[in-house]
User: Fold this.
Amino acid sequence: MERRTPLCAYKEVRLNLEPSSQGSTVAIKIPAHGTIWPGRTAQKRFQIIEFPVAENEEAFRHRYLATSASVYHRVHHSSPRSFLWRVLENGKALSIQAVDVSKPVKNALDAPLTLRFYFPSKIVPSCIAFSDSERHHALSVFVLTESNHLYTLNLRPEFFRKASSAEEDNLNWCKSYLPSAFSFKYPHRLVALHAGELLISLIDGGLLRLTLQEGGGSDWKEVFYNEGGWSHSLRSLIPFHGSKTVTYEKQNLDVSTVTSIASSIVEVGTMPYAFTVSLDHQLRIWNLATGKLAYMGDIVNQYLDPKDAGKDTISPSLSQLIKVFCHEGTALCITYSPLRSGEFKFWDVTPTEDGIRIDDKFPRCKLVPRAPTADLWTMADFSVILDSLNPNVFSIWTLWKNNTTYRVQALDLEGSSDDSVTKSWGNDWRAVATETIREMPTPTLFSGDSLDITDKWLEFLLAPGKFTTATIETGLAICESNSGISKSRPKRSESLPERMCSVIASSNTLGRTSEGKMDYEQLRVAIESQWLRFYRLLGELDKQRGEAQSLVIDPHGNMPWVVLADGVTAVRDCSPLEKLWHSPKELSNGAHLVMAPILAASELRESFSEQLSHTIKTQLLGELFEDSSSSGPASLRALYERCDFEHKIGDEDYTQLEDRLKEFGRGFKDITPGVYEAMLELMSPSDNLAGPSLHPLASFGNKMIVRGAQEIVELHRNICLDQIVLLILIEAEVNHTEEGIQFEITAVYNEFMSILKRLELISWLASNQISLPLEKRERSNSITEKAPKKQGPTAETVTVLQGVLRHLFGLSNNKMSSAVTDVILSICVPNSEYEAPPAVIQCFLLDHERPDLAMDFNRFADRDPFSIYIQGRACLASDDAQAAAMLFKKAAFGISFSDSKARGELRSAGYLDETERNLLNAGFPRYYSHIVALFEKEKLYSFVIDFAQLALQFLNPGTTDEGDGILRTEMHSRLFNAAIQSSRYDIAYSALVRLTNHTLQLTSLRTLITKMCENSYASELVELPLIGVHDEVDDILTRRCQDIVDVTVGVPYHKILYAWRIKRNDFRGAAAISLERLQKLQNAGEGDRTLEADELETPVTKQYMTLINALSCVDKKQAWILYEEPPQKGSKSSRNGIQPKRKVITLDDIRKDYQAELDRIAAIENDQFAFVDGDEMDVL
Assistant:
């Protein structure tokens, strides 16, 4: 009989455990029993650590791959509620982190910290237990080590939020205990019955019950349970005397040793019981009140000959063989026998007067679990979900392993009769489909690509959720070791992509062809081959990370989880389309008509060459994001021609397409509007998504949604591409033949293009990451507490999709596996309720300082004025001022229109402050003033001038509005400042004269004069009319001249003022400032420094000529200036502070002094020197 493939009804969502923020792992070293915690100064008890790179595969397994792991869900408390625990580093480290999917309330804080406890000795396998106290909001962890010490860790929620919380708790959360029983007995299994009670199986077949004493200390009450009472206890002191044993972990275990224990107390009637399975294939039920054995029998109710007892034993490594569920005083017990092909047995447990009664629920059924395929599989774990209303309805989930590969299957059972159970058991198993996103084709280089092969590989390998950083770092270390690359050079300063490129490139060299030219093609092929080898290495490391450890059901929402060696996999419901895609042979009535075009179009596109597939995708994306001049059938025919389908799709491909369609019906005739309506319906979410009981998602839940969206996007995108290709082919070829279909396909084509555009948007959001600040933690109550030197995580790296939409995500606890799928589908459809306009997304990116991503996102932007304005902001942030200015002008008309309602509806994700928002939709002047401020902030003054002039252009000069007046003054001021900064002094002057505020005008005038003089624009300054401010200009220049000490350096303000006064015909004023400069030159000793052009000319004589020329332009009677004689050094008047005398200097006096200066210079030139004061000269 042919093996029937089970229907794929579920889909896995595999999540990495890599923290989203650095510094989120806290290492805690547990002291040995009997020792105290080291002091704060002696040793740091709690350290935020970053693990070094694993240099090889062995170190990678040791540090990152768990040998056992599971998830514990708290019963009495939430936030955090679910905890992932993993045993690492050869059994000496226990890692615990919160993995909540949702939060009870929106403002509940996430718990981002991972606690890694290091124990003094190795942890005993399967001897870790968790419990949740109803009275205390703390997670209780019980760990049994090989030194036989029991450690109790009471972890409060704050421990997972704040690294220093454990220290603030005075370390009372950690207790250790050495059971006296372990001096002569050895443990094998440990479970927590509740917060203060443990049950430990011993290797001699007995049980040890530990009860925490009152007071919550570290003392436990020890009680033994065994079959033979005291006689058995005495015999057990002589190990296994006359008993059959099984060797495991260097110990001999009695065949009656319990290897699997139901993890909580089961109350049947009013009595508490413990359900166990032992190595000898027996189900033993213990009455915990009396300490006696209440029942013992074979776990699958098979009869064994007493002579054969002990031959069939269960492996001591198996611990998940029994599950028990209570319901109104009765219990349902499910046992699994791993022997031979395996078998399940369901037991009804009911109370009786003297104990319990256990009955085979399906006595005529042999319930052998069905392996996923014909390969060799081992069932590693199972879980059961009971219907809350009907205990006879339940689902069983099985986890199968084949080396590092795993599969999950499920079966819904209704225990109404043995016949119905047998039928369901044989036919109704459903499979969990694996992720297809991990099987995406490797990058290929095509002609005309904008990216080279290295860029494509980096994008492929660094895609969010694909490989962890630790996996890539280990792969790089192995590659370096294999290629012999020197490790002495510092590499950690380089980014991860840079190091990847360096390692790949170091293995290849650029050679020459036979003709002596550089062989670039050979280098490209070698680099591509090296990337492929590196990818395969990462695949091998990642395969080890995917080994399944356990299967857990979350009781809140009944979602199954598979815990991996380094990750977790959530199991969600398949969407209707996924069910058809993964199980095409299991089609329901009518589904074949929908599946026919899906399968046929997919196979057609798979037959295309990679180059043709790339061309089709490129052309369609161009059609999506570029304004197309053609529409309707013309657009389809244009795509047909650009992709060259006429020559690229051969007759054989067309015939195969036709035959494939006819396998399901009449071929092209069956492609109708109804088929496509049904297809589009399959891609849509169900109608029961919204509800009042939606819980906001925690960080782990957001990661699950993003990863699921990546998977759905890839499937829906491929189907959209397939169908668009099919529609193009139908429009261009089929509709002109007898096979032509009788409906207008343009509407369907537009619908698929709309979906494809949405999918491309979600794909972009889910493929790019951004760093966001973490929510602020709770403040310390101590005002004297010092901040720790090494802080916890302050920022997290998430996908843009997570950053933009996570505040909208929410899930109902009812059937969470289907709710997750509905949320993912809702994200991927057009007009989704999880909507963020492209402009808002760009604002979000700009607000978090990622203009590079905002620019890359431009292709998704809308064409409305606000979107164009935001694109301009993105260009401005990316230093493309020219493009920004163009976009700002393009958006001006729409976004400047005065509309307070439109202004209130603007959404910017916090990017625009209130001031900026008020300047939009408030008229042209205010809009342009806002743009002026943006360019001024970036110091792009030429654009400030342009937009300030535009703002002034739209201001009504005759308005009496006070706001307009203030804005006009502001624009003139900004225009003036921008013109000053860009040395456009004509514009600055124009703005200056229009200032109405006298104080501001005077300040600006001073700035204008100073800047023009300092930048050598004095001649232009002199030419400026400066109407009405001549006196102010003269006064400003005069003050500048007075401030000068040495006129031979710096700005020549005396000369500038001289030119200014000459230009205004103020010759006496020019002569006065010239005389002042003459005096300062003489005081500086410039009279003895001859100029190269003429040995008899000095700066002083030149200044005399300037002075004489100025006074010569005045009427002879007016050719005088008032001179203030400076005090002589050391004179009495200078010491007493007496004001110097004024005197009149005429043109004749100046000429005499000039002649005297010439004579002095000539005498010096002729070596004539005076040795005494006065006019007498002794000639040497």
Notes: The first helix runs from residue 57 to 64.
